[in-house]
Amino acid sequence: MTALRIDRAIGLHLAVVAALFALQFILPEYHHVNLARIMVLATFALGYNLLLGYTGLLSLGHAMFFAAGLYGAGLTMQHLGWPLHLAFLMGILSGATLSALVGLLALRTSGVSFMIVTLMFAQAGYLATFLFSDYTRGDEGFVLQQAVRHLDFLGLSLDLTQPTNRYFSALALFSVCLFVSLWLIRAPAGRVLVSIRENEERSQMLGYDPFRYKLLSLVVSGCFAGAAGAAYGILFGYVGATFASIQYSIFPLLWVLLGGAGTLLGPLLGTLLMFYLVDAASSVTSAHLLVVGVTLVLLILWFPKGLLGTLREKAVPWLP
Amino acid sequence: MGFGPYLTLAFLEGAVAAAVLALMALGLSLVFGVMRIVNVAHGEFFMLGAVLAWWFGSLVTGHPAIGFLIALVGSPLIVGGMAAVADRLVLKRLNYNPEATIVATIGLLYIIQQLALTFYGPDARPVLAPIDFRIRLPWFGYSGYKLVVIGASIAVMSFVWLLLTRTKIGLIMRATQYDSETALAFGIRVDRVYTGVFALGAMLAAVAAVLIVPIRQAHYLMGLDPLLLSFIVVIIGGLGSLRGTVVAAVIIGVSDGVISVFFSPTLAKILATLFVALVLVYRPSGLFGERAR
């Protein structure tokens, strides 16, 4: 039974990745670009979900990790002329380092205090992008030129501004992070994370050190956010302070809650639905913030488990 | 102008900021103290208060003081009413679960912000001060209205303090804060107390906004900065401690005023934000807070 369950779950995720792969051949251009964007943002949400859904920590400051990746890659490419793959690694490293630092401090608190501390750190990060506006150009941001958004690595030469290559890169990033998540939540460490979510005192009593596991979860989450941020900058060519603002800490929360916290495919579904919901709303009215707000309130009132969480409860108990 | 006058000016500006900040943070602190929830939409109640003040002002022709006085009464009443409705419709259904409440109030934040943008527009609009005289100091003239703001803020805070310590309503609120279950067992309608406190907190934010709007203009995005500052104040003052909140508001308002005059305001904000995060990590009960029960 166990073997069958594992196969079914892996099969489902492979099928999703295959579907995303196939979609690019049939999608019209507009949706093609959108989907690439959604996959990068869903990677961000995947990382957020590891923290919220599997560890039970609600952060209000994830924009700083996304922005760390964005600026880590963008600034090194723009000002130091680093090649793309190094800049991308730098982005991940920035996200990981920042999340480790923030985690060492913020994880001493829990619940509401943790939310506020992360919010405060993120706000400091947001303001820092203005403080160093000589390099970051603050709110206005800067554009990465087409020439530098070119991957030359191991004999590979790819122009990442070209739609197909961009789509593939986004898909590759998302798939890697999806399967890393799947592996992590099934590994013993992932089980400990869930036990911390369910009852922190009890898992401590069983001999696990909650602080270390929470830090692990936060750093992995920070890596995903950093990778997503770096990829976003590289693939779409724009680096700006908006991505460090509170709004970008709220978005992953919204996506994860919509799709279902604690489900692996929830972040993708949530990002996809919210993206097109806002997109559809903006073609009717300019009031897209209203959509965000109303969705948040409705979700927390009636669907605190999100779409896939509710589905798992009602029909498909094996959904990871 | 020498250093002394500069410092005086900085202190005056800081005192005005502190007066408004104290009112707003008092509302946040009251809500946190009694209900144990963090209201992220508090800044939007402040913004609504300011926008309504502009609206009342534009309705009334004649002396600006008339519109101002109407706004001073009407704007908090409307905002308080909206807060009460939000409490009944949303927060009560969540059983005031702290984390769910934060998410829900973030949702409220976006809803209120969008409504303001749709009905009020993206422009910043000025409101005329109700009185127009300048106090002549030896080095510079100073707007008399700003002193009125300080006085009004002190008056409102005294009123809240009297309400809490000298009336039956205050007694009921304090009983609920101390132990809501026992209060319920003694026949106190805890849910009504919660609605009332939530509305009162929002009304304090609205009063603060009506007072400040003749100095700063009304804008639909004006809520965020005061919200973060109020967080800072409430945390430094000790979560739920009203006295600490007022003391912290004065310290932070004045030092923010002084620092912004002499240093880069961005750096000042970054340092203040980091400082608060560290206070929350190492002194969770705040610098002046009583030990948590």
Could you characterize the architecture of this molecule?
The complex is a heterodimer of chains A (320) and B (293). Chain A has 320 residues and is mainly alpha-helical. Helices cover 75% and strands 4% of the residues of chain A. Chain A has helices at 2-26, 29-55, 63-79, 84-106, 111-131, 133-136, 163-186, 188-198, 200-205, 210-236, 247-259, 266-284, 288-302, 306-314; strands at residues 142-143, 150-153, 156-159, 238-239. In chain A, strands 1-4 form a two-stranded antiparallel sheet. In chain A, strands 2-3 form a two-stranded antiparallel ribbon. Chain A starts with a helix and ends in a 6-residue tail after the last helix. The mean pLDDT of chain A is 81. Chain B is mostly helical. Chain B has helices spanning 3-35, 42-59, 64-91, 98-120, 144-166, 168-178, 180-185, 190-212, 224-237, 242-262, 265-282, and strands spanning 134-136, 141-143. In chain B, helix 1 (3-35) packs antiparallel against helix 10. Chain B is globular. The mean pLDDT of chain B is 83. Classes of the chains: A mainly alpha (320), B mainly alpha (293). Chains A and B meet through helix 5, helix 11 and helix 13 of A and helix 4, helix 9 and helix 11 of B.
Helix content of chain B: over 70%
Tell me the distance between the termini of chain A.
15 Å
Shape assignment of chain B: globular
Counting DSSP E segments of at least 2 residues, the number of strands of chain A comes to 4
Q: What structural class do the secondary elements of chain B suggest?
A: mainly alpha
Give the overall pLDDT of chain A as a whole number: 81
| Number of helical regions of chain B | 11
Largest β-sheet summary of chain B: 2 strands, antiparallel
Order of neighbouring strands in the sheet with most strands of chain A = 1-4
The amount of beta strand of chain A, in percent, is under 5%
Largest interface: A-B, 38 and 41 residues
| SSE order of chain B, one letter for each helix or strand | HHHHEEHHHHHHH
